[in-house]
Amino acid sequence: MLADLDDTLFDHRHATREALGVLHAEVPAFRTWAREEFAIRHSEMLELMHQAVLARQMTIEAARITRFQRLLDAAGVPLQNPERPTKNLDPERPTSAAELARRYRERYEAAWQAVPGAIALAAALKRAGVAFVIVTNNVTSEQRLKLDRCGLRPYVDALITSEDVGVTKPDARIFETALAAAGVRPAEAVMLGDSWMTDVAGARAAGVRAVWLNRTGAVSPDSSAGATVSEIQSLEPLADVWRVLVG
Fold this sequence. Notes:
The chain is α/β, with parallel strands linked by helices and 247 residues long. It has two domains: 2-10 and 113-245, Rossmann fold; 12-110. It has ten helices and six strands. It has helices at residues 12-26, 35-54, 60-75, 97-110, 118-128, 140-149, 162-165, 172-182, 196-205, 238-245; strands spanning 2-3, 133-136, 158-161, 190-193, 209-213, 230-232. It has a six-stranded parallel sheet, with helices on both faces. Helix 9 links the parallel strand 4 (190-193) and strand 5. The protein starts with a strand and ends with a helix. 34% of the residues are buried.
């Protein structure tokens, strides 16, 4: 079995929400927007910076700082000191982008957890002798840390990252690398992921059956032509998920 990591097994959405809640409460500049709009703006900027990191145009640390610098710019409030981070957040004014990035990262990591049901599913796959391979568009060191911190590492047979392979999902080559690591042919595999564009479309293009984890209740892109991709809304209960994934 192949699976995405972020927001499929690792609850990135939860950790982001917790970290943004702290910054929205502590930094007046970010209260320019309602909390939900702040989250949307952050998500858009995060994706933009993430793509730059994957393209090796920017280091992950530079991307984190640039993300908050651009959010502060959009809020239209000058920094205390753009060059030198302050030790603590000033309740009256925003601090440097570097300090905001550090503060966000601290709270983000503190909220790390597996998606509910992910560990039970991974353990069941291990007991059944099913190869379990992660296929993810991210930096290898970051994804290893998530697997370790969330308790998923003992159940994972291989971690295939875009950084190591040199291409990102939905490119078929990253799925081919994952299939080789699992020791199976495309027709023998299933791909579980939350992103239709990268996980579902990518797997199908590689000849792999896809299962869409749709935790947000989004409308399926296949809905107009009839459901051709299996869909689940949660990784719980295990018995129901197992029937869809393994049969």
